[in-house]
Amino acid sequence: MFRFARLAPRASRCARPLATYASPPGGHPPQSDLLTSRAKFTEAYAMIPRGVLRDIVTSPLPNWERTRSWILARPLSGFAETFSQYVVEVAPGGGSDAPEPNDAAEGALFVLRGSLALTHGGETHAMEAGGFAFVPPGARWALKNAGDDDAAFVWVRKRYEPAPNTPAPEFFVTSDAATPRTPMPDTNGAWATTRFARRAASLASLFRGGRRRLFPQVASDDLRHDMHCNIVTFQPGAVIPFLETHVMEHGLYVLEGKAVYNVNGDWIEVEAGDFIWMRAFCPQACYAGGPGEFRYLLYKDVNRHAKLPF
Question: How does strand 116-120 pair with strand 123-127?
């Protein structure tokens, strides 16, 4: 069976235009370019601007064909230790029948451009830009470039941490366009979060009780999930009005727009295609300067006890 990861939009369902998402430029800069860069690695965060994501820093991956990856984050002792994050580029006809080498790993995929065919459980899901998939630990899946152009996607990998009396979360495919944004309290929609989740079992379930229901979202207290991968959206002029300082690690990939981000006391400019890698307890806030929306895909580890050195 062949399924699409994005419903055809209706005026009543989706008033916002379809988004475009940044991906690495690749290539190789000329000898005439200046060495000045926003790239920075500190004890609390790393800033990887899109301009350094060139051909020379890509890696091929085992069991993948016609594919290369930019590895943006990996578990690093004394820094961020829970996850890895890639941007993967797949040429037409490329992909893998055995993408994940570790049965204990869960994954989140977000398509930046192109078309991908994700197969799981005997069904193939067509994923276009904005498509999102959650792959639970131990899943058997395949991913192929089904189009005529290169495709690129963000891949977050984490060793799943089971919880007592709690089942592992299920596989699902959805998309940015199909998932409603949830405004943060007292922001009048200036700051909102897109929380991806498994769709309703059927379209009929959207209309139970005579009222239309939006697609469900992963609740922050759904203890099956030990990580969240959400899209955070700021309207021009919106802010995080305090320095968030918390136990969660972050991988922050900027999808659209630009802003200034305060990371561990440093104000840095960020734009679409940049990546910020943050360790636990790194103070952080942002101001979205416009002129358009500022949006990023955000990883964080959640819903588990802190590990103790037993």
Answer: antiparallel
pLDDT in tens, 250-270: 999 999 999 999 999 999 999
Question: Which residues, including other chains, have CB under 8 Å from residue 202's CB and lie 6 or more apart?
Answer: none
Q: What is this structure's pTM? A: 0.89
pLDDT at 309: 86
> Alpha-carbon torsion 74, 223, 160, 143, what sign?
negative
User: pLDDT tens digit string along 169-191?
Assistant: 999 999 999 999 999 999 999 99
Q: Which of 40, 258, 4, 21 is nearest to 154 (CA)?
A: 21
Lowest mean pLDDT among 10-24, 141-155, 175-189: 10-24
pLDDT at site 199? 54
In contact, 39 and 276? CB cutoff 8 Å: no
Are the beta carbons of 97 and 63 closer than 8 angstroms?
yes
Mean per-residue pLDDT, 295-308: 96
Cβ atoms of 283 and 48 within 8 Å: the answer is: no
